[in-house]
Structures are given as C-alpha cells and as structure tokens.
Design brief:
Elements lengths: L8 E5 L4 H11 L3 E6 L20 H6 L4 E4 L5 H13 L2 E4 L3 H6 L4 H7 L4 E6 L14 H7 L20 H24 L3 E6 H8 L1 H10 L16 E5 L4 E5 L3 H10 L14 H6 L1 H12 L4 H10 L4 E3 L10 H5 L3 E3 L9 E3 L23 H7 L4 H9 L5
Helix pairs in contact: 1-7, 7-8
Length: 396
C-alpha cells in the first residue's frame, strides 16, 4: 500500500481498543506512531487474556503493530513536560483520557494547539467532551447497553445480549481515523491544525440510525428480532439438516429465486407473502414454511443451490473456519507474524486495499518501553537529559 501518511508523526496516548485501533490504522498507512505508556504496566490490554506462547496478550498484539513504545509517568511534572515536548514536534496527538484528566495535566487542546499551530488533536472518549456524563469512564458493552444496541440484540423473551464483537470500540477508532484524515486534508490546504473528537456514545447512537429513525416515525419501540431484520423478510437464520444457515432475500427478485430453489413458488402469489411489507407482518408463518423445507437437506447443499440461483446465503460458521477459508485466503487478509518471531500469531490485515496492496507490516507490536531513548532523542533530548529523566523516574 502507498505510505500515504509517511512523514507524519503521531503521539499516541491511548489504550484498550478504540484508540489503539485508530492509531494502528495511522501506522498502517505509513505514519510514525509513538505510543505513550504507563511505566511498569503499560496499556491495559497488555494484561488481557488470552496470551501467546511468548506470554503476550493477543488483544494488544492485534491493535498495536507499526508503533514504538515509550514509558512516561504523566503524574510526574517532568513526565508531563516530556509529553508536551513530544506533542510540540508532532503532527498528530491522539488520546483517550477523560476530559477532566487531560485538562488537569495540561494536555488540553487550547494549550497544546497554542504551542503547535499545525497540530491535529484527536480525543477519543466514552461519552464525549461535553454534557453531564463527559467525565465518566466507559467500555464497549456499557455503550451497547446505553444506546439500546443490547435491547435489539438476541431473541425475543431472552435476556439482553451484547454484540459478540467490539463493534462500538473498533468503529469509534475508525471514525476517529476518518476525522483525522479529513483534518490532514484540510491542513494541507490551510496550514492549520484542527480538533477532532470521537466517542463511544456517538458511535453507538450512529449504529442505531435505522432503528431510531423508524421509531421516531412510527412511535413503536423496536424489539429483539433474533437473527432477523425488522425491515425485511426472509432475512434471518434457518435450520438445515445439520446446522444453521442464513438467507438474505433482500428484494422481490431474490425472494422469487429463493422460492424457486425451495420449490415454494406458490408463495410469490400468496397475498400474505407476495410483497415484503406483507412478509414482514407474517414473518413467523413464513419462517416456519421455509424451515420445513430447509431441514430436509444439509447446509452446504442448500448454499450451493442458492448461490447458483443468486440468492445471498451462508452457513453460519464459527471462527475456526475463517483463517483457512478459501475466500478469506484469496483476499490475503490473514498475515503470519513468523518473521517477527511470533510463529503462533497472525495479524488481521486492513479491510481495504489500494492498487491491490494492503498495509505494510513494518514492525511487530512493541515491548513495553522498548523505544523510550529513541523517541526522546527524536524530541531533541541529549543523552545526559535522558539519563536524568530516568533517574527521576519520569520515564522508564
């Protein structure tokens, strides 16, 4: 992939998932990323389970490639000076501290941008930078609960369920990345930096766009729909002779093709099922009719028949199918980390390519504090000054 962001330097004061995913994207596109970590423990994700055979947390490895690690004590006055000096030379500053915490340490936008007019300053928070909840901590499942995502996930009558993947965290990292890219483009025209803000809450609200707009028009609170959609039918999971499969007949043509495969073409003439609006109303009955047929054959047989007929469908696979899946392999999404002496780990590459190329995997996720001296020298510190900072334990 073209190193579009080569020459840009990022000071990364984030941890866990959302922020590190954002800054990893920046590094994947060629930026130099200096990851600021707490002495001794570093990013919280370093301790999350599971770990590789080399006793490194897989979550940390998945979100922190193409970065350098420097340990700075931000509760130490000299450590705060170090961070401000680094940011003063950088192009981008990305942090995930709470608004009150970042201001109390002197890392607020007004101060840092006054010292570096070209700085693109990005904050990633739980609830945003304004409002009564701005200083509360938050995590992906908390925001799934707050924004109603959990209220529409799972099956009717069952307890609340969070989406099994970190959709809020990773999407927030993506939105922050998009905002930063817009700011970089604007800076190329004006020469001025910018303030970018993203939060888990805003991402959660955005994920609820369709359901919220439906509610605001109809006044009906959306309910759990299992694997289905409140807008389309059939658009859900069905049992086959051996496992579950998902069918997504998203328009009238696809529904007709599906009925032909299932030998149920009479449904297209039945007033209860002839149009999507009626099928949604009569979803339960339609589901049972279709499932009575799908149960007669194994999933893969149905998948082949439906794919040949152009009907979107898939067996509902477990994650063990993905690493060696033929289509995933063709897209070259899974990259071995063996060249980084991590034979039991693989990176998941960027889900986008440019001119057929994906990210440059230039360096493995860094050991804690591995690059402290190098980064300090980049900031202009002499070796004697670095030794003094280490002696005072402002850095490690």
């Amino acid at each position: 992939m073209p190193n579009t962001l080569q020459g840009l330097t990022v000071i990364d004061l984030t941890q866990n998932v959302a922020g590190p995913y954002c800054t990893q994207l920046l590094g994947d596109f060629g930026a130099t990323v200096f990851k600021i970590e707490r002495p001794g423990t570093g990013d919280d994700a370093r301790s999350w389970a599971p770990h590789t055979n080399q006793n490194v947390a897989t979550t940390f490895l998945a979100l922190n490639r193409n970065k350098k690690s420097i340990c700075v004590d931000l509760d130490h006055a000299k450590g705060q000076d170090v961070l401000r000096r680094l940011v003063g030379k950088a192009d981008l500053f990305v942090h995930s501290m709470r608004p009150d915490s970042v201001e109390s340490r002197g890392f607020g936008y007004e101060r840092l941008s006054a010292e570096n007019r070209k700085l693109i300053y990005c904050s990633i928070s739980a609830f945003g930078e304004v409002g009564p909840l701005k200083n509360l901590p938050g995590y992906d499942p908390l925001i799934q609960a707050y924004t109603g995502i959990m209220s529409v996930t799972g099956h009717p009558g069952q307890p609340p369920v969070r989406a099994g993947v970190s959709i809020v965290d990773m999407a927030t990292g993506m939105w922050a990345f998009i905002g930063i890219m817009a700011a970089v483009l604007e800076r190329s025209r004006t020469g001025q930096g910018a303030r970018v803000s993203a939060s888990l809450l805003e991402t959660g609200v955005a994920w609820m766009t369709l359901l919220m707009t439906n509610y605001m028009v109809t006044g009906r609170v959306p309910e759990k729909a299992g694997s289905g959609s409140p807008m389309i039918a059939p658009y859900e999971a069905f049992q086959t002779a051996d496992r579950w499969m998902l069918i997504a007949a998203g328009n009238e043509r696809l529904f007709a093709n599906l009925c032909k495969v299932l030998d149920l073409s009479e449904l297209t003439k039945d007033p209860k099922f002839s149009a999507n609006k009626q099928r949604v109303v009569n979803r339960v009955e339609l589901h049972q009719i279709i499932e009575n047929v799908t149960k007669k054959r194994p999933s893969q047989e149905w998948v082949k028949l439906m794919q040949d007929a152009g009907v979107p469908c898939s067996s509902i696979n477990e994650v063990d199918k993905l690493p060696d899946d033929e289509q995933v392999s063709a897209l070259d999404m899974v990259k071995s980390a063996a060249k980084f002496d991590m034979p039991d780990f693989s990176f998941i590459d960027l889900p986008v390519s440019v001119n057929g190329e994906r990210a440059s995997l230039d360096s493995r996720p860094p050991a804690l504090g591995n690059d402290t001296d190098e980064v300090l020298r980049w900031a202009g510190y002499a070796d004697g000054e670095i030794a003094s900072l280490r002696k005072d334990r402002a850095v490690t």
